[in-house]
Amino acid sequence: MAIPLLQVDAFADGPFTGNPAAVCLLDAPREPSWMQSVAMEMNLSETAFLVPRADGFDLRWFTPAVEVDLCGHATLASAHALWEEGVLARGQHARFSTRSGWLTAEPKDGEIELDFPSKDAEALSDPPDLASALRTTVREIHKNRFDYLALLESEQAVRELAPDFAALGRLGVRGVIATAKADAGRDYDFVSRFFAPGAGIDEDPVTGSAHCFLAPFWSARLGRDELRGYQASKRGGYVRTRVTGARVKLRGRAITVLRGELRC
User: 126: pLDDT confidence band, cut at 50, 70 and 90?
Assistant: First the structure.
């Protein structure tokens, strides 16, 4: 049986920007080992698997190495795929049951807005030696249940990072976010990069779930609920954020770059 499969650039301003995700539209659940094999075959930072249910869709995310609990760009790609393939009517909200609870997506002003949980964090008074792993000066370190966040001295420091990926992979967390306030005159408020070698991804191009951490972090420092972040990977991408209590709204665009079928 042929299974529809799309590759979608998420948080993208055009084709081949943002973060590519594969979206697999299933009609029934499949074994996790099969989904992991498909993710390895696709070899993208995330492959999303959707299964319809009465009240929405079950959604799971796999890197080439592991299943993850939360992924923003592959959720945005999934909503885009459902509308583009006519599974949902354009304008109809998409609802996803995931390992991080219910998530929703809706079209808004030419973009897609995701409703995600805010990931509160704590500052570490006795932090791990992230500075040596990142090979830079670190001003502050914070941690939530997924990731470390390292506040750096400047946007230039974030952009010039050349980390020790092996050392980062030994830290025992999903990933490490490096961030700084944007330089004056930029069209965004903060800059970031995201490294997850422990999950099989040295550097993720644009990480929606990291912005569940970044949004409240920078909102508290900049005094505004609505912000725009830029993830300064090689591909690069923008994420609009809005903090609403215990939730974060994430907004971006998505573009289908490939459509095909799985025949296994």
Answer: low
pTM over 0.85: yes
Q: What is the pLDDT of residue 243?
A: 97
For residue 65, pLDDT beyond 80: yes
Q: What phi and psi, each to the nearest 5 degrees, are found at residue 215?
A: -60, -55
d(CA 117, CA 57) in angstroms, rounded, equals 18
Under a CB-based contact definition with an 8 Å cutoff, are residues 64 and 200 in contact? yes
Given the structure tokens 């964090």, which residue do they identify?
121
Q: Which of 204, 206, 157, 208 is nearest to 183 (CA)?
A: 157
Mean pLDDT of 206-224: 96
State the catalytic residue, choosing from 31, 41, 46, 155.
Answer: 46
Q: For the chain, which domains are there?
A: 3-116+250-262 (3.10.310.10), 122-245 (3.10.310.10)
pLDDT of residue 201: 94
Give the confidence band of 15 by pLDDT, cuts at 50, 70, 90. Answer: very high
In the residue annotation, 46 being an active-site residue is answered as: yes
Residue 39's pLDDT is what?
98
